[in-house]
Amino acid sequence: MAGLVRVRPDADLDEVVEILERDGGVIVEDLVDAGTLASLWADFQPALDACAYGEDWYNGTRTRRVSSLFARTTHLTPVVTHPLYLGPARKIMQKPVPMWIGKSRVEMTPTIQISGTQLIQLHEGQGKQPLHRDDALHLRTHPGATSRVQIMVAMSEFTAENGGTMVIPGSHHWDDERAPQASEALPTVMSAGSGLIWLGGVYHGGGRNTTSTPRTGMTLALDLGNLRQEENQYLAVPRESVLAYPEEVRRLLGYDRCPPGLGWYEMEDPYLLLEDGEIPGLGGIPGVLAPVKAPVTADV
Ligand SMILES: O=C(O)CCC(=O)C(=O)O
Fold first, then answer.
1. Tens digit of pLDDT for each residue in 17-53?
2. Which residues pair with 93 in a beta bridge?
3. Relative to the CA of 122, which ligand 1 atom is closest?
4. Relative to the CA of 100, which of 12, 23, 112, 214 has its CA 20 to 30 Å away?
């Protein structure tokens, strides 16, 4: 198969969804503007410089990895809410699920959430990472519905020589018997500020860096809201840092409920606790809201 399709940041959402569902990945050129990229570098550089290389073959022994990104910067909103990242993630993953509750036929649409965040800096001599599927974290079987949409933003240029992410286009359609071959994987070549977006079922991995210049990528993953977050965002991001972001991002960080009823606090939307520091009326007003207001009849 040919390499991944490249689109501009103003590409049509439905077209990008179609590309992603067909090929498993897409490159959005110039997804992050120069000002945002500079701000992210300013906030992340000290942590990257202080970070030691990894110690195992999978994470890379010539690779620096820095996580807890929403605690380290306030500049991630334009990345995680980019219409060509969040838009396709919502369209692909937030599919209504029909169910019976007693005699009522209802549909529940899951939320999505920020799962893992990481800077990945490959240094000279870093070899290829084993090809893998990121939805393996949730022990997903294939083929199956997509439960993760991930982005890798090029913080520096990605080339075939410096370890640009290796991707096997179309591999999300494969079953679990077919093993990925290195010869099938194509390097992601993109300029700083561009973004590779791919589905959780796609085989991919970091490439080999044979140059003397580090390759720096920033990856964020959006997962279905009924799965455990890869990175524990409640521990990784202090409340003050969460509050530095707008409501949509706060909810994506996990301060939300996934229908029909996951993630509640005292049976209420945890977002209320985050914002107000208390659940209004708790203990004082009878009739605390049910987790989900679905059209369910009382007779069972
Ligand atoms: O660094 C990359 O390009 C990909 C890294 C990756 O897939 C991983 O660490 O799981």
1. 999 999 999 999 999 999 999 999 999 999 999 999 9
2. none
3. 1
4. 112
Beta bridge partners of 104: 101
Query: Which of 125, 134, 85, 133 minimizes the C-alpha distance to 215?
Result: 125
Q: Is 24 contained in some domain? A: yes
Chain segment 179-211, per-residue pLDDT in tens: 999 999 999 999 999 999 999 999 999 999 999
pTM score, two decimals? 0.93
> In CATH, what number is assigned to the domain containing residue 72?
2.60.120.620
How many structural domains are present in the chain? 1
Q: Which DSSP helix (H) or strand (E) runs through 215? A: strand 215-224
Is residue 285 in some structural domain?
no
d(CA 224, CA 94): 8
Q: Give the domain range for residue 212.
A: 6-276
**Ligand 1 pocket by C-beta < 6 Å: which residues?**
120, 129, 152, 165, 204-206, 217
What number of CA atoms fall less than 13 Å from residue 226's CA on the CB side? Answer: 13
